[in-house]
Design brief:
By secondary structure, this protein is mainly alpha-helical. The protein is about 65% helix and about 0% strand. It is built from seven helices and no strands.
Length: about 170
């Protein structure tokens, strides 16, 4: 509970002192500012704060805020809300491409951040982590300019079955 209160407090301070002033209407960011803010939103801002920022679409003419959610995979597999992580992942790919900074090393960093966001959403739930691993493997295999991501219901159900088997001691490895 204290962690959540501190997160909300930090988000409020961040929005009112750092992010909001830079997002004033009509303010055009320099390339350096745009790059810095992209990196901040993607890697240095907690997911809840990112979603708050995203809702306001600051610098809409300079950022790519478009998203197709979790692409061809469910946004809420087994009831776990992966959409926020997918939104930030799309922000990363879209803006790094738009800024001409997208390469395989950056793709790995963005994908790893996606995995970390998914794990945060899971809060240690084993079934959720197993599904998150499938989503992460899919973006590593097919993300970016390398194809479309497809996660099937069968893969999600297999992950759920594995989680149950692990919890019951029938399997030892994730």
């Amino acid at each position: 509970m204290l962690r959540r209160v501190l997160s909300v407090l930090l988000s409020t301070v961040l929005l009112t002192t750092v992010i909001a002033p830079s997002a004033q209407a009509g303010t055009k960011l320099t390339r350096q500012q745009l790059v810095k803010l992209t990196d901040q939103y993607l890697f240095d801002t907690d997911l809840d704060t990112f979603l708050t920022i995203r809702a306001g679409h600051p610098h809409d003419d300079q950022f790519d805020w478009t998203s197709d959610g979790c692409t061809l995979a469910p946004d809420r597999p087994l009831g776990f809300n992966f959409l926020p992580a997918c939104l930030r992942h799309d922000f990363g790919y879209g803006n790094y491409k738009r800024q001409g900074r997208f390469d395989e090393d950056v793709r790995k960093d963005i994908d790893d951040n996606f995995r970390d966001d998914l794990y945060d959403i899971c809060h240690g739930n084993l079934a959720c982590v197993l599904v998150a691993n499938i989503y992460y493997a899919a973006v590593r295999a097919f993300g970016g300019a390398y194809g479309r991501i497809v996660v099937t219901q069968q893969q999600i159900e297999q992950a759920q079955s594995r989680a149950v088997a692990i919890q019951q001691g029938q399997l030892r490895h994730i």
